[in-house]
Design goal:
InterPro entries: AMP-bd_C (IPR025110), AMP-bd_C_sf (IPR045851), AMP-binding_CS (IPR020845), AMP-dep_synth/lig_dom (IPR000873), ANL_N_sf (IPR042099), ATP-dep_AMP-bd_enzyme (IPR050237). GO terms for molecular function: ligase activity. Residues 10-323 form the AMP-dependent synthetase/ligase domain. Keywords: Ligase. The chain has 450 residues and is α/β, with parallel strands linked by helices. Among the domains are: 5-200, 3-Layer(aba) Sandwich (Rossmann fold); 360-449, GMP Synthetase, Chain A, domain 3. 30% of the residues lie in helices and 27% in strands. Strands 10, 11, 12, 13, 14, 15, 16, 17, 18 and 19 form a ten-stranded mixed sheet that branches. Strands 5-3-4-6-7 form a five-stranded mixed sheet. β18 and β19 (350-356) form a beta hairpin. α1 (5-13) packs parallel to α8 (184-196) and α2 packs across α3 (62-73). The radius of gyration is 22 Å and the shape is globular. It starts with a helix and ends in a 19-residue tail after the last strand.
């Protein structure tokens, strides 16, 4: 079934079931369809049609969700804009051929329109969404995903679900919907919830881990820094987490000892995944699989090749190009493959990441990668997390000790020297209490340098 037909068919199939729970408010699937059709009618009045550009700058609400669905029903190019961009970056994204900017203040006007039938007009080659990169190296780049690509996506079409996806969907009875609807990870797992027949739960107050327990959440997505903070809280303040059946953890590496702690405190619920804005999801690691230093086995439909140590990937749902940026596209998309610029290796169907080609420091004339050093430092029994970066050919390590522990700098240096050689030993090792988090939810290593 083509995108977004499968979602609308699922909503129509069980009209009385609760689609969205927003505090004390409950929105049935029929009511969500009604909101969607009214907003689509309002968008038509605003001259949105197939191929129009529609930007979304909204909070997480049932109406905002309906606006995304309405724009896709009309065949529009949807540009989700999450919080955290600079004014310059916002100007770049909002000046790029848009026909409508949807805000929370705009939604009542769009809803003030008589209901009309939803008539889907998109074609497989039309652009369904622009997924903007974080912009950490400059202006964000818009990754183009077509309607055909989303029709082939492993989450958006039940015909494409493999065993792991079916199991994840089954865990989505009560999916915690938070953060930003502009996030493709939020969108893609929301799709599983709606297609499964579950309820998207929008909390009035977002406080982890309490929100998972109090709202009896069965499925959520989680970045690594938030998971670590949640586990720290649960040590001193245990909660009933028995409702939780699945949790996708992605965005940055999860250390083996923290994964073991998560399994102990939360149960066998942690799934790990790897992907990029350019590729969407590439791998999945289920709770039972023992390859804890791997980012998982390949999703169905994914192909990966290792070329000179670098991970190259392709799948039916990857980006077609960077929006109006042929030079960058030519660098990253080569003969139908995406250069991930991550380093790794494949063993027995599992992908192991060893670093990033852009996360390299030249030491004594040789390339040294931060990823392996971080992993070695994190193996020390007194270390919780480690981050390494290297401006001006000098390696700096920032280490978060385990609570109440005092790792020896000499031991840490010797550990790296023994495992990776003298060129990989950081010039400085600094102990910190926490790592700053970027708007994307990933650790902001550059901020550690002050």
């Amino acid at each position: 079934m083509s995108f977004p037909d499968a979602v609308f068919a699922a909503l129509r199939a069980e009209p009385s079931k609760i689609a969205v729970e927003h505090g004390s408010r409950e929105v049935t699937r029929a009511e969500l369809l009604g909101l969607t059709s009214r907003i689509a009618a309002g968008m038509r009045v605003a001259r949105v049609k197939r191929g129009s550009g529609v930007a979304m700058i909204t909070d997480v609400t049932p109406e905002a969700l309906a606006a995304y669905l309405a724009a896709w029903a009309l065949g529009a190019r949807v540009v989700g804009i999450r919080p955290g961009f600079s004014d310059k970056q916002l100007d770049h994204m909002l000046s790029d051929g848009l026909d409508l900017v949807v805000t929370d203040a705009k939604l009542p006007e769009l809803l003030d329109t008589p209901d009309e039938p939803l008539i889907l007009t998109s074609r497989p080659g039309d652009v369904a969404r622009l997924v903007y990169t974080s912009g950490s190296t400059g202006l964000p780049k818009g990754c183009v995903q077509t309607y055909g690509a989303l029709s082939a996506h492993y989450n958006w079409n039940p015909d494409n679900w493999d065993a792991a996806t079916i199991r994840l969907a089954a865990a989505c009875d009560r999916y915690l919907l938070f953060g930003s609807l502009a996030s493709v990870v939020v969108q893609d797992y929301l799709a599983l919830c709606l297609l499964h027949g579950g309820t998207a739960v929008i909390p009035e107050e977002l406080r982890f881990p309490d929100v998972l327990s109090s709202l009896r959440i069965t499925f959520t997505i989680m970045n690594v820094p938030r998971l670590y903070a949640m586990l720290d809280s649960l040590r001193d303040n245990p909660l009933d987490m028995s409702s939780l059946q699945g949790m996708i953890v992605a965005g940055s590496p999860l250390t083996p000892h923290r994964l073991a702690e998560a399994q102990q405190r939360l149960g066998p619920v942690v799934y790990q995944g790897y992907g990029q804005s350019e590729t969407n999801g590439l791998t999945i690691l289920t709770p039972e699989e023992g390859h804890q230093d791997s980012v998982g086995r390949l999703q169905g439909g994914v192909e990966i090749e290792i070329r000179d140590g670098e991970v190259w990937a392709r799948n039916p749902w990857m980006m077609r190009e960077y929006w109006e940026n042929p030079a960058e596209t030519a660098e990253v998309v080569v003969d139908g493959w995406v250069r991930t610029r991550d380093l790794g290796e494949l063993r027995d169907g599992y992908l192991y990441l060893t670093g990033r080609t852009r996360d390299v420091v030249i030491v004594n004339g040789y390339p040294v990668y931060a990823g392996p050093i971080e992993r070695v430092l994190a193996q020390h029994p007194d270390v919780d997390q480690a981050y390494v970066l290297g401006p001006e050919e000098v390696l700096h390590a920032f280490v978060i000790p385990l609570a109440g522990r005092e790792p020896s700098i000499d031991e840490l240096s010797s550990l790296v020297r023994d495992e990776l050689g003298p060129d990989s030993v950081p010039t400085t090792i600094t102990f910190v209490d926490e790592v700053p988090v970027a708007p994307s939810g990933k650790p902001d290593k550059k901020a550690l340098l002050g």
